[in-house]
Amino acid sequence: MKIVCRCEDITEEDIIKAIEEYGCETLAELKQLLRLGMGHCQGRTCLILTAKILARKTGKSLNEILPSFRPPAVAVEIGLIGGENGK
């Protein structure tokens, strides 16, 4: 038994079962069903491992499975986000 998500105690077998029995084809579907990436680490390790399992089981490439990560368009001082006026 291989644990993929230590925070939520999800195994590789759990992921494969979700793909085969429930027809999950995206990380979003697996996250909703299994709570992947919802623990303390916020998916830093388990999401890439899950994406590799999903790619292997569905025949898709990692580029098709992994979401695109977008940085903020403009840098913002943290004080502005927190409501401070910078004084």
Please explain how this structure is put together.
With 87 residues, the protein is mainly α. It has one domain: Orthogonal Bundle (Arc Repressor Mutant, subunit A), CATH 1.10.10.1100. 46% of the residues lie in helices and 6% in strands. Strands 1-2 form a two-stranded antiparallel ribbon. A hairpin with a 4-residue loop joins β1 and β2.
Structural topology:
Elements lengths: L2 E3 L4 E2 H11 L4 H8 L11 H13 L3 H4 L12 H4 L6
Antiparallel strand pairs: 1-2
Helix pairs in contact: 1-3
Brief summary:
The protein has 87 residues and is mainly α. The protein is 46% helix and 6% strand. The protein has helices spanning 12-22, 27-34, 46-58, 62-65, 78-81; strands at residues 3-5, 10-11.
Comma- or semicolon-separated keywords:
single chain; 87 residues; mainly alpha; Arc Repressor Mutant, subunit A; two-stranded antiparallel ribbon; 5 helices; 46% helix; elongated
